[in-house]
Amino acid sequence: xxxxxxxxxxxxxxxxxxxxxxxxxxxxxxxxxxxxxxxx
Length: 40
Fold this sequence. Notes:
By secondary structure, the protein is α+β, with helices and mostly antiparallel strands.
């Protein structure tokens, strides 16, 4: 199903690497409802 594009990951936030500490706090507090991914 993933190969067909029918399964997609939920992305909570896409943050630059300069915001890595903030991303870590989001994950630790479990406030996210999806992935916290590095972005541009």
